[in-house]
Amino acid sequence: MGSRSTAKRADALRSIDAIVQAAAECLGRNPEASLSEIARAAGVGRVTLYAHFASRAEVVDAAMSRAIDRGNEALDAVDLSGDPLVALARYVEVGWHLVDEARALLVAAQRELPAGRIRELHSGPAARVETLVARGRAEGVFRTDLPIAWLVNVLHSVMHSAADEIRAGRLTSDRAAAHITATVLAAFTPPGKPVPEPGAGA
Fold this sequence. Notes:
Blueprint: H1 2-29, H2 35-42, H3 46-52, H4 56-76, H5 84-101, H6 103-112, H7 115-121, H8 123-138, H9 148-167, H10 173-188
């Protein structure tokens, strides 16, 4: 009896994993992908999908959580020590690609999930930048006349805007990180100080 219930649990976990992966892929291509498409891509029926997820919002939440978890793993590998300017450029280089990959998924999340939940999901990446900005301020490199939360918001807004510009055909992916870094350095530099060249000191 025990082994049968263990097998059932393992099957359920496999189904959930397949659904979440399929949701991330389908919504990553098309934020309006239907639950039927997601179930088909996962190799399960709608009944199975609804046995694990009560609504489209739950499916989107799980897919977004998965993308954020994977993003956190990638960001964990970024060296944010040393010169805050160089560390910021490193963060942008990796963080930008994560935003680029997840931009359609984020559109789906913004349609389905409350703004507070999206903020909560992004709290890991946000905490990283808050720490970096606080260190840059302490070292006199970043401005102190605006709140840290606002500066972090500016960085992430510029990243998301870059994704929109790429979709509109006004920016190419290979130039995005340099544009974002230059814009954010200008925004973060204390008033009256010259804006450092992106990559200076790298």
